[in-house]
Amino acid sequence: MKRILFILLSAVLLLSACAQPTPLPTLVPTATLPPTATFTATPTPPPTLTPTATQNPDPATWTKEEVRANHEKERLAYLEEQGAAQSIPALEYHGDNYRIPFGAAVVELSPEKFEEQMAWFHENHVHAVTGEELRDWLNGNIELPARSVILTFDLGNNGINSVPRMLEVFRKYQMFGLFTITHYGMDAGTSVLCPDDRCWDVFRDAHNSGYVTIGTHTISHADFSLKTREDGLAELTESKRIIEEKIGNGCEVFLLTWPLEAVPSWAKDLKTIGIDIAFGGNTYPILQNAAWKDKPEDWFKLPRILPPNSDGISGRPAGKTLEEIMRMYTASWE
Q1: What residue ranges define each of the domains in the chain, with the CATH number in brackets?
Q2: Do 326 and 320 touch, CB atoms closer than 8 A?
Q3: What is the pLDDT of residues 117-141, one digit of tens each?
Q4: Which tens digit of pLDDT belongs to each residue from 139-194?
Q5: Can you tell me the distance from the alpha carbon of 202 to that of 188, in angstroms, rounded to the nearest whole number?
Protein backbone atom coordinates (compact mmCIF):
# COMPACT_ATOMS: atom_id res chain seq x y z
CA MET A 1 0.00 0.00 0.00
CA LYS A 2 2.81 2.43 0.86
CA ARG A 3 4.46 1.60 -2.45
CA ILE A 4 1.23 2.49 -4.34
CA LEU A 5 0.89 5.84 -2.50
CA PHE A 6 4.53 6.68 -3.25
CA ILE A 7 4.01 6.02 -6.98
CA LEU A 8 0.85 8.18 -7.10
CA LEU A 9 2.57 11.06 -5.26
CA SER A 10 5.54 10.97 -7.63
CA ALA A 11 3.21 11.16 -10.64
CA VAL A 12 1.44 14.24 -9.25
CA LEU A 13 4.75 16.03 -8.67
CA LEU A 14 5.93 15.20 -12.19
CA LEU A 15 2.73 16.59 -13.73
CA SER A 16 3.05 19.79 -11.67
CA ALA A 17 6.60 20.34 -12.88
CA CYS A 18 5.53 19.88 -16.48
CA ALA A 19 2.80 22.52 -16.08
CA GLN A 20 5.35 25.30 -15.29
CA PRO A 21 5.99 27.56 -18.35
CA THR A 22 9.41 27.26 -19.92
CA PRO A 23 11.33 30.58 -19.77
CA LEU A 24 11.82 32.33 -23.13
CA PRO A 25 15.29 31.93 -24.57
CA THR A 26 17.63 34.90 -24.18
CA LEU A 27 18.37 36.64 -27.49
CA VAL A 28 22.07 36.49 -28.22
CA PRO A 29 23.34 39.18 -30.57
CA THR A 30 25.07 37.95 -33.69
CA ALA A 31 28.18 39.35 -35.27
CA THR A 32 26.26 40.39 -38.37
CA LEU A 33 26.01 44.17 -38.82
CA PRO A 34 23.17 45.92 -40.65
CA PRO A 35 23.99 47.06 -44.18
CA THR A 36 25.55 50.51 -44.50
CA ALA A 37 22.88 53.14 -45.16
CA THR A 38 23.15 55.43 -48.15
CA PHE A 39 23.41 59.17 -47.57
CA THR A 40 19.90 59.95 -48.74
CA ALA A 41 18.27 57.25 -46.63
CA THR A 42 19.96 57.55 -43.25
CA PRO A 43 22.76 60.12 -43.18
CA THR A 44 25.93 59.17 -41.35
CA PRO A 45 26.32 61.22 -38.15
CA PRO A 46 28.84 64.06 -38.43
CA PRO A 47 32.34 63.25 -37.18
CA THR A 48 32.95 63.77 -33.49
CA LEU A 49 36.05 64.51 -31.51
CA THR A 50 38.03 61.62 -30.12
CA PRO A 51 38.49 62.18 -26.38
CA THR A 52 42.01 63.21 -25.39
CA ALA A 53 43.49 64.77 -22.30
CA THR A 54 41.87 68.06 -23.30
CA GLN A 55 38.87 66.89 -25.35
CA ASN A 56 35.80 64.89 -24.40
CA PRO A 57 32.82 63.50 -26.33
CA ASP A 58 30.11 65.56 -24.61
CA PRO A 59 29.40 68.82 -26.54
CA ALA A 60 27.61 70.27 -23.51
CA THR A 61 30.95 70.50 -21.71
CA TRP A 62 33.25 71.47 -24.59
CA THR A 63 35.38 74.57 -24.28
CA LYS A 64 35.38 77.15 -27.07
CA GLU A 65 38.63 75.66 -28.35
CA GLU A 66 37.14 72.14 -28.43
CA VAL A 67 34.03 73.41 -30.22
CA ARG A 68 36.12 75.02 -32.96
CA ALA A 69 38.45 72.01 -33.22
CA ASN A 70 35.46 69.74 -33.80
CA HIS A 71 34.06 72.16 -36.36
CA GLU A 72 37.33 72.14 -38.28
CA LYS A 73 37.30 68.35 -38.27
CA GLU A 74 33.77 68.47 -39.68
CA ARG A 75 34.83 70.94 -42.39
CA LEU A 76 37.59 68.64 -43.61
CA ALA A 77 35.40 65.51 -43.46
CA TYR A 78 32.58 67.15 -45.41
CA LEU A 79 35.03 68.56 -47.96
CA GLU A 80 36.22 65.04 -48.67
CA GLU A 81 32.64 63.77 -48.81
CA GLN A 82 31.08 66.55 -50.91
CA GLY A 83 33.77 68.55 -52.68
CA ALA A 84 34.21 72.33 -52.41
CA ALA A 85 31.52 75.03 -52.41
CA GLN A 86 31.31 77.54 -55.24
CA SER A 87 28.38 79.44 -53.72
CA ILE A 88 26.87 79.51 -50.22
CA PRO A 89 23.37 80.74 -49.29
CA ALA A 90 22.89 83.02 -46.28
CA LEU A 91 19.63 82.74 -44.33
CA GLU A 92 18.17 85.73 -42.49
CA TYR A 93 16.82 84.86 -39.05
CA HIS A 94 15.56 87.20 -36.32
CA GLY A 95 16.00 84.84 -33.40
CA ASP A 96 14.03 81.62 -32.94
CA ASN A 97 10.61 83.10 -32.11
CA TYR A 98 9.36 86.09 -34.10
CA ARG A 99 6.59 87.47 -36.29
CA ILE A 100 7.53 90.45 -38.48
CA PRO A 101 5.66 92.21 -41.30
CA PHE A 102 7.79 91.87 -44.43
CA GLY A 103 6.32 93.84 -47.31
CA ALA A 104 2.96 92.29 -48.11
CA ALA A 105 3.87 89.11 -46.25
CA VAL A 106 4.81 88.07 -42.73
CA VAL A 107 8.07 86.46 -41.69
CA GLU A 108 7.69 84.25 -38.62
CA LEU A 109 9.15 81.26 -36.85
CA SER A 110 8.62 79.27 -33.66
CA PRO A 111 11.31 77.72 -31.43
CA GLU A 112 10.09 74.23 -32.35
CA LYS A 113 10.38 74.88 -36.09
CA PHE A 114 13.74 76.58 -35.62
CA GLU A 115 15.06 73.44 -33.97
CA GLU A 116 13.59 71.31 -36.77
CA GLN A 117 15.55 73.34 -39.31
CA MET A 118 18.81 72.98 -37.37
CA ALA A 119 18.18 69.23 -37.07
CA TRP A 120 17.63 69.01 -40.84
CA PHE A 121 20.98 70.71 -41.51
CA HIS A 122 22.71 68.34 -39.09
CA GLU A 123 21.13 65.20 -40.54
CA ASN A 124 21.97 66.23 -44.10
CA HIS A 125 25.63 67.07 -43.50
CA VAL A 126 25.28 70.81 -44.01
CA HIS A 127 28.24 72.79 -42.67
CA ALA A 128 27.19 75.95 -40.79
CA VAL A 129 29.82 78.58 -41.60
CA THR A 130 31.39 80.73 -38.91
CA GLY A 131 32.18 84.37 -39.59
CA GLU A 132 35.89 83.59 -39.49
CA GLU A 133 35.45 80.77 -42.03
CA LEU A 134 33.41 83.02 -44.30
CA ARG A 135 36.09 85.71 -44.28
CA ASP A 136 38.80 83.15 -45.03
CA TRP A 137 36.71 81.58 -47.80
CA LEU A 138 35.97 84.91 -49.48
CA ASN A 139 39.67 85.76 -49.36
CA GLY A 140 40.59 82.40 -50.92
CA ASN A 141 42.41 81.08 -47.85
CA ILE A 142 40.25 77.98 -47.22
CA GLU A 143 37.71 75.78 -48.98
CA LEU A 144 34.28 75.04 -47.54
CA PRO A 145 32.11 71.97 -48.16
CA ALA A 146 29.68 72.06 -51.07
CA ARG A 147 26.78 71.78 -48.63
CA SER A 148 27.46 74.89 -46.56
CA VAL A 149 25.09 77.51 -45.17
CA ILE A 150 25.51 80.90 -43.48
CA LEU A 151 23.06 81.41 -40.62
CA THR A 152 22.68 85.14 -39.87
CA PHE A 153 20.65 86.55 -36.98
CA ASP A 154 19.52 90.19 -36.69
CA LEU A 155 19.19 90.63 -32.93
CA GLY A 156 18.89 93.21 -30.17
CA ASN A 157 17.80 93.33 -26.55
CA ASN A 158 15.13 90.72 -27.32
CA GLY A 159 18.03 88.27 -27.53
CA ILE A 160 17.80 87.94 -23.75
CA ASN A 161 15.10 85.32 -24.35
CA SER A 162 16.09 83.75 -27.66
CA VAL A 163 19.89 83.53 -27.46
CA PRO A 164 20.08 81.01 -24.58
CA ARG A 165 17.56 78.73 -26.33
CA MET A 166 19.42 78.96 -29.64
CA LEU A 167 22.75 78.12 -28.01
CA GLU A 168 21.29 74.91 -26.63
CA VAL A 169 20.04 73.99 -30.10
CA PHE A 170 23.44 74.82 -31.62
CA ARG A 171 25.17 72.53 -29.11
CA LYS A 172 22.71 69.73 -29.81
CA TYR A 173 23.12 69.85 -33.60
CA GLN A 174 26.58 71.45 -33.90
CA MET A 175 25.29 74.52 -35.75
CA PHE A 176 26.93 77.96 -35.83
CA GLY A 177 25.48 81.44 -36.21
CA LEU A 178 26.46 85.01 -37.04
CA PHE A 179 24.77 87.16 -34.36
CA THR A 180 24.65 90.85 -35.31
CA ILE A 181 23.46 93.22 -32.59
CA THR A 182 21.44 96.42 -32.58
CA HIS A 183 22.60 97.47 -29.13
CA TYR A 184 20.50 100.56 -28.50
CA GLY A 185 18.53 99.74 -25.33
CA MET A 186 20.90 97.03 -24.11
CA ASP A 187 22.76 98.96 -21.43
CA ALA A 188 21.57 98.61 -17.84
CA GLY A 189 18.43 100.63 -17.17
CA THR A 190 17.80 101.59 -20.81
CA SER A 191 14.90 99.19 -21.37
CA VAL A 192 12.57 96.94 -19.38
CA LEU A 193 14.39 93.95 -20.88
CA CYS A 194 17.74 95.08 -19.51
CA PRO A 195 17.39 96.29 -15.92
CA ASP A 196 21.04 95.33 -15.38
CA ASP A 197 23.82 93.90 -17.56
CA ARG A 198 21.96 90.71 -18.44
CA CYS A 199 21.35 91.65 -22.11
CA TRP A 200 25.07 91.95 -22.74
CA ASP A 201 25.63 88.82 -20.66
CA VAL A 202 23.70 86.59 -23.06
CA PHE A 203 25.83 87.77 -25.99
CA ARG A 204 29.01 87.30 -23.95
CA ASP A 205 27.89 83.72 -23.33
CA ALA A 206 27.25 83.30 -27.05
CA HIS A 207 30.71 84.59 -27.96
CA ASN A 208 32.42 82.48 -25.31
CA SER A 209 30.56 79.32 -26.38
CA GLY A 210 32.42 79.11 -29.70
CA TYR A 211 29.17 78.62 -31.65
CA VAL A 212 28.71 82.29 -32.53
CA THR A 213 30.51 85.08 -34.38
CA ILE A 214 29.45 88.51 -33.08
CA GLY A 215 28.84 91.42 -35.46
CA THR A 216 26.93 94.70 -35.55
CA HIS A 217 23.41 95.49 -36.72
CA THR A 218 24.20 99.19 -35.97
CA ILE A 219 23.23 101.32 -32.96
CA SER A 220 20.18 103.06 -34.36
CA HIS A 221 18.70 100.45 -36.73
CA ALA A 222 18.14 103.31 -39.18
CA ASP A 223 17.97 103.21 -42.98
CA PHE A 224 21.66 103.61 -43.77
CA SER A 225 20.99 104.26 -47.44
CA LEU A 226 19.76 107.69 -46.25
CA LYS A 227 22.83 108.42 -44.15
CA THR A 228 25.86 110.29 -45.42
CA ARG A 229 29.13 108.41 -45.63
CA GLU A 230 30.52 110.46 -42.75
CA ASP A 231 27.58 109.85 -40.42
CA GLY A 232 27.20 106.21 -41.36
CA LEU A 233 30.84 105.29 -40.87
CA ALA A 234 30.95 107.26 -37.61
CA GLU A 235 28.02 105.29 -36.16
CA LEU A 236 29.44 101.96 -37.29
CA THR A 237 32.87 102.80 -35.88
CA GLU A 238 31.29 103.57 -32.52
CA SER A 239 29.13 100.44 -32.67
CA LYS A 240 32.14 98.27 -33.37
CA ARG A 241 34.02 99.84 -30.45
CA ILE A 242 31.15 99.41 -28.00
CA ILE A 243 30.44 95.80 -28.90
CA GLU A 244 34.09 94.76 -28.74
CA GLU A 245 34.46 96.49 -25.37
CA LYS A 246 31.25 95.07 -23.90
CA ILE A 247 31.78 91.49 -25.11
CA GLY A 248 35.51 91.38 -24.44
CA ASN A 249 37.51 88.15 -24.49
CA GLY A 250 39.00 88.75 -27.94
CA CYS A 251 35.74 89.71 -29.67
CA GLU A 252 36.44 91.24 -33.10
CA VAL A 253 33.55 92.87 -34.95
CA PHE A 254 34.31 92.50 -38.66
CA LEU A 255 30.84 91.89 -40.10
CA LEU A 256 27.44 93.58 -40.10
CA THR A 257 23.91 93.17 -41.37
CA TRP A 258 22.30 96.28 -42.84
CA PRO A 259 19.08 97.30 -41.06
CA LEU A 260 16.04 97.06 -43.32
CA GLU A 261 18.38 95.38 -45.87
CA ALA A 262 19.17 98.95 -47.06
CA VAL A 263 22.70 99.10 -48.52
CA PRO A 264 24.21 102.60 -48.80
CA SER A 265 26.17 103.75 -51.85
CA TRP A 266 29.31 104.09 -49.72
CA ALA A 267 29.18 100.49 -48.43
CA LYS A 268 32.49 99.65 -50.13
CA ASP A 269 34.24 101.98 -47.66
CA LEU A 270 33.47 99.73 -44.67
CA LYS A 271 36.90 98.18 -44.88
CA THR A 272 38.42 101.50 -43.84
CA ILE A 273 36.92 100.99 -40.35
CA GLY A 274 37.73 97.28 -40.08
CA ILE A 275 34.46 95.76 -41.26
CA ASP A 276 35.14 93.20 -43.99
CA ILE A 277 31.71 91.67 -44.65
CA ALA A 278 28.16 93.04 -44.75
CA PHE A 279 24.83 91.44 -45.63
CA GLY A 280 21.95 93.05 -47.46
CA GLY A 281 18.93 91.27 -48.87
CA ASN A 282 17.69 90.56 -52.37
CA THR A 283 20.93 91.70 -54.03
CA TYR A 284 20.52 89.84 -57.33
CA PRO A 285 17.86 87.90 -59.21
CA ILE A 286 16.75 85.17 -56.88
CA LEU A 287 18.65 82.30 -58.51
CA GLN A 288 21.92 84.18 -57.93
CA ASN A 289 21.25 85.18 -54.32
CA ALA A 290 24.14 83.37 -52.67
CA ALA A 291 27.65 84.33 -51.63
CA TRP A 292 30.19 83.98 -54.44
CA LYS A 293 33.86 84.23 -53.57
CA ASP A 294 34.72 85.54 -57.06
CA LYS A 295 32.53 88.64 -56.59
CA PRO A 296 34.40 90.93 -54.16
CA GLU A 297 32.03 93.75 -55.11
CA ASP A 298 29.34 91.80 -53.22
CA TRP A 299 31.18 91.45 -49.94
CA PHE A 300 29.56 94.61 -48.55
CA LYS A 301 26.09 93.65 -49.76
CA LEU A 302 26.02 89.86 -49.61
CA PRO A 303 22.53 88.58 -50.47
CA ARG A 304 20.30 86.85 -47.97
CA ILE A 305 17.26 84.68 -48.42
CA LEU A 306 14.57 83.85 -45.88
CA PRO A 307 14.34 80.55 -44.01
CA PRO A 308 10.99 78.80 -44.23
CA ASN A 309 8.23 80.01 -41.93
CA SER A 310 6.66 77.62 -39.46
CA ASP A 311 4.57 76.15 -42.29
CA GLY A 312 7.79 74.99 -43.96
CA ILE A 313 7.62 77.47 -46.86
CA SER A 314 9.94 80.41 -47.52
CA GLY A 315 8.86 83.84 -48.77
CA ARG A 316 12.22 84.35 -50.55
CA PRO A 317 12.64 82.31 -52.69
CA ALA A 318 8.84 82.16 -52.68
CA GLY A 319 7.20 78.82 -52.11
CA LYS A 320 10.40 76.86 -51.43
CA THR A 321 11.11 74.37 -48.66
CA LEU A 322 14.43 74.23 -46.84
CA GLU A 323 15.58 71.27 -48.93
CA GLU A 324 14.59 73.01 -52.16
CA ILE A 325 16.48 76.14 -51.10
CA MET A 326 19.65 74.20 -50.40
CA ARG A 327 19.41 72.36 -53.69
CA MET A 328 18.99 75.69 -55.51
CA TYR A 329 22.15 77.28 -54.14
CA THR A 330 24.51 74.44 -53.26
CA ALA A 331 25.93 71.35 -54.97
CA SER A 332 26.50 67.65 -54.09
CA TRP A 333 22.92 66.50 -53.63
CA GLU A 334 22.72 63.69 -56.19
Answers
A1: 59-329 (3.20.20.370)
A2: no
A3: 999 999 999 999 999 999 999 999 9
A4: 999 999 999 999 999 999 999 999 999 999 999 999 999 999 999 999 999 999 99
A5: 13
